[in-house]
């Protein structure tokens, strides 16, 4: 009798601990390096809203924008160590991590439009690339668009000759390094959070960004010209710490996956309109002159940068580049 009483008391105690534990929300720290009013920033907040509403508070998403927690070079290590659970880094970040295949997204002019791009990110090639992250302790959940990049400087950039000798900020990417060198520019790796000051002080002469990043980071205050080149793509992979993800209850994982699908559609739907709106905001500011390249000028830039594809084939993988060409119909 005494043994049954002790067992009952132990069971009740365990149940009370279990109930208390269940009452604690699962917290996911979601860190990123851009502003809340960019496509990525808005999508992160939308994901937070969906998850917290649908889980009725059982899961809490804490969003930390603008490098509040970690800068470009720190965030992936923080995720791998479990200091944060979720990131949406630019695809260029995975090359230095050792997954060089992602640098295919940095190849100049490899995508002409969103339709071509989504054949890759929403198809088997994109899924295969996300799978490669698992060996690094990372689970890839989705691709989010930011948009196509434009060149900025304190002089108009229309022809390859215009880039000669300019110090151009790039992300840490061998492909972007080769891209700038092919144009005769001097690539300068710099954390995104430091770009405004770098442009302001002349540490770098120019940069490449989608209009949304250019405007929300106030680069129009320190750059006189923005050339609408659409020469490259900037996108993100939403990723989580794999151990954390695998340790979640299956029902929670399913709920997060559904919310991520909806947030991804939202992110990609707004990317194009946000960039168009921020390009207009740059124009209205009167501080930066918009340079719209002619079809011939854009074709000349594409031709000048085409050798980068062949130069990077051994690094990225020639078969992968050909698979992307097949999806997009790329022609030099």
TrEMBL record:
Pfam families, per database record: DctP (PF03480)
Top-rank lineage group of the source organism: Bacteria
InterPro entries to which the protein is assigned, alphabetical: DctP_fam, TRAP_DctP, TRAP_DctP_sf
Keywords: Signal, Transport
Keyword Ribosomal protein on entry: no
One GO term describing the cellular component: outer membrane-bounded periplasmic space
UniProt key word Lipoprotein: no
GO aspect biological process, one term: C4-dicarboxylate transport
Signal peptide range: 1-22
Similarity comment: Belongs to the bacterial solute-binding protein 7 family.
This protein's name: TRAP transporter substrate-binding protein
């Amino acid at each position: 009798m005494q043994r049954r009483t002790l067992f009952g008391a132990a069971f009740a105690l365990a149940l009370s601990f279990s109930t208390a534990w269940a009452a604690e929300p699962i917290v996911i720290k979601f860190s990123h390096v851009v502003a809340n009013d960019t496509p990525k920033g808005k999508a992160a907040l939308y994901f937070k809203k969906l998850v917290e509403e649908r889980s009725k508070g059982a899961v809490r998403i804490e969003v930390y924008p603008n490098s509040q927690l970690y800068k470009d070079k720190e965030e992936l290590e923080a995720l791998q160590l479990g200091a944060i659970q979720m990131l949406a880094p630019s695809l260029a970040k995975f090359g230095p991590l050792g997954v060089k295949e992602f640098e295919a997204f940095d190849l100049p002019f490899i995508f002409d439009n969103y339709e071509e791009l989504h054949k890759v990110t929403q198809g088997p090639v994109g899924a295969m690339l996300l799978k490669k992250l698992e060996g690094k302790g990372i689970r890839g959940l989705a691709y989010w668009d930011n948009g196509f990049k434009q060149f900025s400087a304190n002089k108009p950039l229309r022809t390859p000759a215009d880039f000669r000798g300019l110090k151009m900020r790039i992300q840490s990417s061998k492909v972007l390094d080769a891209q700038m060198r092919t144009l005769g520019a001097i690539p300068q790796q710099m954390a995104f959070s430091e770009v405004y000051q770098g442009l302001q002080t002349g540490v770098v002469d120019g940069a490449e960004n989608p209009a949304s990043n250019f405007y929300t980071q106030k680069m129009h205050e320190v750059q006189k010209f923005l050339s609408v080149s659409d020469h490259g793509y900037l996108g993100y992979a939403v990723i989580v710490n794999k151990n954390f993800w695998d340790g979640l209850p299956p029902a929670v994982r399913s709920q997060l996956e559904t919310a991520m699908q909806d947030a991804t559609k939202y992110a990609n739907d707004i990317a194009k309109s946000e960039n168009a709106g921020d390009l207009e905001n740059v124009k209205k500011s009167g501080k930066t002159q918009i340079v719209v390249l002619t079809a011939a000028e854009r074709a000349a830039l594409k031709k000048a940068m085409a050798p980068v594809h062949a130069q990077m084939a051994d690094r990225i993988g020639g078969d992968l580049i050909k698979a992307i060409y097949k999806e997009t119909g790329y022609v030099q």
